[in-house]
Amino acid sequence: MNLIRSIGVAMDEAIDQRAIVLYPDDEDWDYRVTREHAELAAANSLGAVLTIPLHAEDSMVGALTFERGRGQHFDDAAVEMCDAVASVVGPILEEKRLNDRNILVKLRESVATQGRRLIGPDYFGRKLVLGTLALLALVFSFATGDYRVTSPAVLEGLVQRSIVAPFEGYLASQGVRAGETVDEGQVLATLDDRDLALERLRWFTTHRQRLAEYDRALAERNRAEANIIRAQIDQAAAQMQLLDEQLARTRITAPFDGIIISGDLSQAVGATVERGEELFKLTPLNAYRVILEVDESDIESLAIGQTGMLRISSIPEEPLQYTVERMTPISEQGEGRNFYRVEARLDAPIEAIRPGMKGVAKTYVEERLLIQIWTEKLSDWIRLKVWKWLP
């Protein structure tokens, strides 16, 4: 035990000086304190004692002590070889010592090391990063912002009127195409009226003929025949009135000022049209609605009466304010996602907009913490994935 204690004290002597200690030392060596080495050599009749500290990174982790008998000494080559061995063995032994410790000891030491680095004089970059994170956490704990639901949007006319063929016939001409603005009463297209005109002429002739027969029956005082002819006269007059109405409807006109959003008959002149067939679709220019395609994950945040801002792709510099008016309970699919159709009213339409224009709408919901706004999608995705894989 005395020998072990003496060797340990000699090792401490070298570690405290952080240098190699050789006893007896050479004349060309720097000065070293060698008292403990001298006592170790005298107590054990040794010729020379050499202690080399073991380094691991920037710290001293131990020491190697070499001994030689009487009359022997450590030359420079031996000292260099022992120093080389110590430089290799030191990190290895320290690594093995650290790995052989209990896990709780490792954890406690790791926490203590990180704490010393955090409050110590070095590791400025780590302190800067942690300080920045702490400041951001403090800011995000109190900073709030407007939570808005973003969705694709398209403009539609508030009223859409279908212009249909009033009866079966042939298309004589067309005056407008989709995209053109029209005034109330403007002719959009005309139907061929030659058959109707001939039919009216026939009934007109019949009407005049029955009038002559009616006058003759009255002159002959044949009341029964006069009553029959009178009924035929009324029938001919009714047929002429019907044909007049149909002839007037061969000129298809715009019921109000607006824009044609569908319909191009330029390649169908002379073709037949069926009764009730849609020829044009007209919408006014001063009344619009916004159709929002709200994702299914955001629909629960919207409610009737909420407001928002719309920016059209063609005129992004002009924001348009709208108010939510109607929400459909049925989902639709498009572009690989499920969405709900939400209708909103434009508060102040501008002249530059047209039906069919698309853009991006942001509906204001409420004021929330910024960190909650930025991480909502991620947290919902993580929550869904965790629920999916839980047993």
Q: What do these coordinates show?
A:
This protein is of the alpha+beta class. It folds into 5 domains: 98 residues, 2-Layer Sandwich (Beta-Lactamase), CATH 3.30.450.40; 40 residues; 65 residues, OB fold (Dihydrolipoamide Acetyltransferase, E2P) (Beta Barrel); 57 residues; 102 residues, Beta Barrel (Elongation Factor Tu (Ef-tu), domain 3). The chain is 40% helix and 31% strand. It contains 8 helices and 17 strands. Strands 4-13-16-15-14-17 form a 6-stranded antiparallel β-barrel. Helix 1 packs antiparallel against helix 2 and helix 6 runs antiparallel to helix 7. It is rod-shaped and about 175 Å long. The two termini are 61 Å apart.
Under CATH, the topology of the largest domain is which? Answer: Elongation Factor Tu (Ef-tu), domain 3
Q: So, the CATH homologous superfamily of the largest domain?
A: Efflux pump adaptor protein, beta barrel domain
CATH class of the largest domain: Mainly Beta
Tell me the fraction of residues in β-strands, as a range: 25-35%
**Given the helix and strand composition, which structural class is it?**
alpha+beta
Radius of gyration: 51 Å
CATH architecture call of the largest domain: Beta Barrel
